[in-house]
Amino acid sequence: MRTEIYPIKNPADSRAIKKFWIKAFAVYALAEVIFLGATYFITYSQCPSCVLPFPFYLWQYLANLLLTAMFWYGLAFFYKQALWKAITANILIFFLYYFIYAGMLYVVLNSGQEWLMGKTLRYRSFQDVVYNSWFDIGKYVVKLSAFYVLRFYAEYRKAASQRLELAVINKDMQLNLLKQQLNPHFYFNTLNNLYGLSRNNHPKLPAALSQLSDIMRYVITDCNQHKVSLDQEINFLHSYIELEKLRYENDTIIEFDVQGDAGDQQIIPLLLIQFVENAFKHGMKEKSKNDWMKVSTAIVDNELAFRVSNSNYSSLPTGGIGISSVKNILELQYQGKYELQMQQEDHCFSVTLKLSL
């Protein structure tokens, strides 16, 4: 068995986000150097004997960097959780930050190392350390504010970049989907089949003509909208499959199953057709008695589970322009809200798309 699962996160976006946070942390590290340097010189100018040895300030700097990195990582982990979880996490992270730093400071202050603390110890108990480190609460608030400002800015940049990219490629992508999915061969084959039905005065002819009309109306008119109703997309798939079935024998298994109520849910037009078209193109191309295809759509609340299974795939069709376009649309329009899985086992190929509408 061979399986390919396309993750929700785009690797390129992940690298860009990681790079952004590395730069942001480097800027913070520089700001911390400036802050500690200013603190040192101000203290020295007012009270030279109050200045501690340089190793203490170096330790303080490194400790602040370590705790800030851990602090930001914790906030990032809970950032997109439910509101109550995020608030609870912020409170817990604050106490952990505050008391961990106080504990580290207590150990250093009472280490007895003159090269680190000089000859005078300022605090003797942990309570004294906690009481006299209230200023660190202000530093925590600054770091908290810095994290959320940076996070909002990163998401704004990402959204702006995606909007620009989408605006540039959307028209070409839609046109490409039309060419890839409903190409002239489909219309040519359908008209040939309709011609054969008309010569025999077949009872299926009126329904087939109506289905072809529905497909053309959907592609030419309805698909000009940014989103269409899920019912429209499902009806379009049904008409497409019924017309394609005219090319096969009556005993060929071609099934289309719909479960659940679409309600007022909407979807990007022509998003699902590529998988069905590929199934006919690759999985049913031999027209043998072993050909079969099953398409299922399940809707629960605002969740869509779409699956296409078919016969005779020799390899996973991952390199085609159509599949690539669908993956781009999913990443741009449904980032973090979809899972696409392609699986090949024996003489069966299946593609499953789970989508939050």
* Total beta-strand segments: 8
CATH secondary-structure class of the largest domain: Alpha Beta
Low-confidence segments = none
Average pLDDT, all residues: 78
- Secondary-structure-derived class: alpha+beta
How would you sum up this structure, described in words?
By secondary structure, the chain is α+β, with helices and mostly antiparallel strands. It folds into 2 domains: 12-160, no CATH class; 166-356, Histidine kinase-like ATPase, C-terminal domain (Heat Shock Protein 90), CATH 3.30.565. It is built from 11 helices and 8 strands. The strands form 2 sheets. It has a 6-stranded mixed β-sheet, covered by helices on one side. A hairpin with a 2-residue loop joins strand 5 (292-300) and strand 6 (303-311). Helix 1 (11-46) runs antiparallel to helix 2 (54-78) and helix 7 runs antiparallel to helix 8 (205-220). 18% of the residues are buried.
Secondary-structure topology with pairs:
Layout: E1 2-6, H1 11-46, H2 54-78, H3 83-109, H4 114-117, H5 126-132, H6 135-181, H7 184-199, H8 205-220, E2 228-229, H9 230-245, E3 253-259, E4 266-267, H10 273-283, E5 292-300, E6 303-311, H11 321-333, E7 338-345, E8 348-356
Parallel strand pairs: 3-5
Antiparallel strand pairs: 1-7, 2-4, 5-6, 6-8, 7-8
